[in-house]
Each structure stands twice: as structure tokens, then as C-alpha cells.
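Support request from a user on the community tier.

User writes: "When I paste my C-alpha cells into the form, the page sometimes reloads and wipes my input. The last time it worked, I copied everything first. Here is what I submitted, just in case something in the input itself triggers the reload:"
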């Protein structure tokens, strides 16, 4: 059983370099299918979800080859990929597989893919994805196992009015529409930086997308796309925010580099509100904390609001603050599974509906806890770093899904942390 062992109470000091963004890399890898050509993509994060995505398209017949020893630059050629051939068991492992539906539909005029996996936050429907495909003229049949789409005459541009702000549905609609006949407008689109990144990648390959990053995205269909000889994925704002929350919890001074500070604005402003000292450079942020921080209230929201993917990490931070903080989760139905694990460490948390009230305590105590999902796992690391004594985190494979080298990075910042049997997934080159 993989596990991470931490002896807490050490301040964090030093520099950490951030990888490419997992939630940009996943749609970019899958949307390369819609080009049908060779794409060279840089700053691929070496995390298991992205390695799984690359293995899926390789199983479908794409050429996939890392061109560097660190496995961060990949050459993909999807010219000979076979549609509707993604292995169901692999697809079921990651949420990002859902982008196969839009990519196959956009390239071949039909798609069939098993329903995706992903972290368990309660219901994670795909009705907005289906709505977008139908609005573009596809017949969509879905059940509790798979989604199948077909548009024998090809997709036609149209205006899609989303009923809910959805990152995945916005991206999937954009991917499907790039080769549709005519103009597509996405109203009520999500505005996350990784949506802009996917649009930039597709435009580099000959698409004609404007407005990404706003709530109205326009896609003028083109007949063909081409490949690209170098696209660089944006840095991972959630990975960066995780290290910022960690030093806020332990105290110390950490410079987080290779980032886009603008993407961190809401996280930086929250930490400042709590009493942390934040310094910004062009591509780095330094967080300095020399005292107990103040309690604050957070309400998660789509970008540019406070990201739901930073909710568990800040809840762990709140246990170290002066006073009672509130975490109000508005994006997902159920994202509090980590609370029971924090309670094992002495956290005092009261959940009422979708709001957790978290009282600052003198010190958490080390315990054996589970990483119940990806960001909950990161929260367990933050809690363990701040706690008194030894914390053992089990089920760490969920952490490996989205964080590259997290144990080594924290060790380099002065943490007493080690991984036992932490088998890193290596992409098996032929
Ligand atoms: C993406 O999930 C991310 N995953 C999630 O990150 C992230 O938490 C989420 O966006 C929000 O930012 C990937 O990019 C692989 P949504 P996604 O569609 O696209 C509801 C992580 O930790 N909804 O924006 O699935 C949905 O149930 C992961 O990296 C519908 O109702 O999120 C949720 O309540 C966790 N119908 C809300 O919208 C739909 O058709 C937002 O979901 C689609 C979504």
C-alpha cells in the first residue's frame, strides 16, 4: 500500500517550480485528435491522469512519444487514430476522458465513449455536454454507461445557451465546434484559464476561436486543422495554490515560480486578507508567514471566483488560524468527504448544508488519514505538515493523479516527509 509519512511542525522555506496544468493538458491531449495531424506539446505535467490520457489515445492508434527524458514534451500524431475505440476500463479512470466525445465528433462526425471517472463529489452529470452536441446537430444517446453521438451530415454552427457554468461542457463544445459548418456561439461559458489555453492550442492548429476567457465564446468553423510544432501548456494554478496554502499553514517563506500570477489573484488576495505577506514577480509569487493567520470566509465559485479545487487545502489551513472560518462549497454537490479525515487529527469542523465552519485549534495532532480524492489528499499533506507528530496518509494514488513530485518538492522546502512504496507511474515506451 502506498503511503506518505510526515513528521509535522517544520516551517517551509525555499523555492518550488510549478508544472503544466493538469486540467489544461487533459483537454489539449484529447483535442489533438480533432487536428488529425502531428502536434508537439510542451510543459506536459508528469501526473497519472495525463499519462493515462496519453495511453488511451495511443491504444486508439495515435503515435505518442515523449521527446525528453523528463516526460514533459510529447509528440502526438492522431492521423491514424480509430474512433470509438477507447478502452472502457481506461476511460473510466479519469474525468478528462469525456473530451473524447467532442474530439471524435468534431473530427469524424460520430463518437462513442464510456462515461468518465474522476473524483467522487456526488452526481457529476454530462447533460450540458449533451445539450451542446445536440444544439450543433448531433443525435446523442446516453445511458449510465456511455455516450454515443452521431452527425452524419456533419455539425452545424449554432448558439448554445448553457444552463450551468461548466468547465468540461464549455471545452467539449468548443472542441466539437471547431470544424462545424458556420459559426457557433457559447453563451454562459466557463472562463477558467485552462479554457483559454485549449482555445489557444486549437487556434495554433488553425481553428478560429475568439472570446475564450469570457462568458461568450465564438467559434467560426474551418474545414481542416493542421498540427503544431510547439505548444506550451500554462502552469497549474491549483498546484501553485496548494504550495501557497501549505506555507501559510506551517509558516515560513516560499517562492512559487514558473506561474502566471494573474491566475492566482483570488488565492493571493485571500491569503493577504488572512495576514500572509505576498510579493509578486513576472512569473513567481513569494508567500511569507511569520504569525498565526486570521480566520476568513470563502465561497467557491467558477473563475475568477475562488476555485473549488482549492477548497480542501484551505480548509486544512483554516485549522491553524485564529478564530472560526467558513468554507461554502457552491460548485459541487458533495465535497466534504475530507472533513472526517481532518477530524481524526483534532480538527473542530461543523457542517451545515454546503458550509463548513472550521475553528482554529492550537495544533492538529498527527494521525493515520486517507486521501479520499485528489485535492483532499493535498489537504491531508498540508494538515500533516502543520500538525504535531507523525501523520500517515494512505490511498495516495489519488494524489499521484494530479501532483508531480509533491513529496520531493515539500522535502526540498524543509518538510520531514517521505513516501513509502510510492510507485510513480512511468509511461511505458514501446
Ligand atoms: C473540471 O471538472 C475539473 N476537472 C475539476 O477539477 C474542477 O473541480 C471543475 O472543472 C470545476 O472547476 C477536469 O478538468 C478534469 P464542471 P468538470 O463541469 O468539468 C455540474 C481536480 O481536482 N455539471 O465545471 O467535471 C457539475 O456537476 C478536478 O482537478 C452539470 O450539472 O466540472 C458541477 O456541479 C476535480 N452538468 C458543476 O456543473 C454538466 O453537463 C461544475 O462542473 C456538467 C457539469
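"...and here is what came back when it finally went through:"
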Amino acid at each position: 500500500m502506498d503511503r506518505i509519512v510526515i513528521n509535522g511542525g517544520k516551517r517551509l522555506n525555499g523555492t518550488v517550480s510549478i508544472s503544466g496544468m493538469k486540467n489544461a493538458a487533459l483537454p489539449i491531449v484529447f483535442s489533438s485528435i480533432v487536428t488529425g495531424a502531428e502536434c508537439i506539446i510542451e510543459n506536459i505535467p508528469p501526473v497519472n491522469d495525463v499519462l493515462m490520457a496519453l495511453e488511451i489515445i495511443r491504444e486508439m492508434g495515435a503515435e505518442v512519444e515523449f521527446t525528453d527524458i523528463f516526460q514533459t514534451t510529447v509528440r502526438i500524431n492522431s492521423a491514424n487514430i480509430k474512433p470509438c475505440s477507447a478502452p472502457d476500463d481506461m476511460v473510466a479512470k479519469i474525468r478528462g476522458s469525456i473530451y473524447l466525445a467532442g474530439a471524435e465528433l468534431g473530427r469524424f462526425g460520430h463518437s462513442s465513449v464510456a462515461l468518465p471517472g474522476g473524483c467522487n463529489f456526488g452526481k457529476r452529470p454530462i447533460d450540458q455536454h449533451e445539450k451542446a452536441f445536440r444544439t450543433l446537430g448531433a443525435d446523442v444517446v446516453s445511458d449510465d454507461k456511455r455516450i454515443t453521438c452521431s452527425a452524419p451530415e456533419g455539425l452545424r454552427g449554432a448558439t448554445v445557451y448553457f444552463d450551468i457554468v461548466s468547465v468540461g461542457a464549455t471545452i467539449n463544445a468548443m472542441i466539437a465546434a471547431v470544424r462545424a459548418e458556420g459559426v457557433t456561439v457559447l453563451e454562459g461559458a466557463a472562463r477558467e484559464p485552462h479554457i483559454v489555453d485549449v482555445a489557444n492550442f486549437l487556434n495554433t492548429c488553425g481553428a478560429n476561436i475568439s472570446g475564450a476567457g469570457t462568458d461568450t465564446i465564438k467559434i467560426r468553423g474551418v474545414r481542416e486543422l493542421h498540427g503544431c510544432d510547439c505548444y506550451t501548456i500554462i502552469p497549474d494554478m491549483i498546484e501553485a495554490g496548494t504550495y501557497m496554502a501549505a506555507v501559510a499553514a506551517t509558516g515560513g517563506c516560499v517562492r512559487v515560480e514558473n506561474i502566471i500570477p494573474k491566475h492566482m489573484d483570488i488565492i493571493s488576495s485571500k491569503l493577504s486578507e488572512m495576514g500572509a505577506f505576498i510579493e509578486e514577480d513576472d512569473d513567481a509569487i513569494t508567500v511569507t508567514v511569520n504569525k498565526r493567520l486570521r480566520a476568513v470566509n470563502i465561497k467557491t465559485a467558477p473563475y475568477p471566483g475562488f476555485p473549488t479545487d482549492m477548497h480542501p487545502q484551505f480548509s486544512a489551513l483554516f485549522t491553524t488560524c485564529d478564530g472560526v472560518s467558513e468554507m461554502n462549497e457552491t460548485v459541487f454537490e458533495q465535497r466534504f468527504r475530507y472533513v472526517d479525515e481532518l477530524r481524526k487529527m483534532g480538527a473542530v469542523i461543523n457542517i451545515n448544508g454546503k458550509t463548513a465552519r472550521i475553528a482554529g485549534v492550537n495544533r492538529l495532532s498527527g494521525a493515520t488519514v486517507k486521501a479520499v480524492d485528489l485535492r483532499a489528499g493535498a489537504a491531508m499533506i498540508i494538515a500533516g505538515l502543520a500538525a504535531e507528530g507523525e501523520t500517515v496518509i494512505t490511498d495516495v494514488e489519488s494524489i499521484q493523479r494530479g501532483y508531480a513530485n509533491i513529496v520531493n518538492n515539500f522535502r526540498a522546502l524543509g518538510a520531514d516527509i517521505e513516501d513509502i512504496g510510492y510507485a510513480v507511474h512511468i509511461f511505458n515506451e514501446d
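Agent notes: The reload is a front-end session timeout and is unrelated to the input. The pocket of EPZ is lined by residues 22-23, 26, 95-96, 119, 123-129, 164, 166-169, 190, 308-309, 331-332, 374-375, 402 (CB under 6 Å). The CA atoms of residues 37 and 227 lie 5 Å apart. Escalated to web team.
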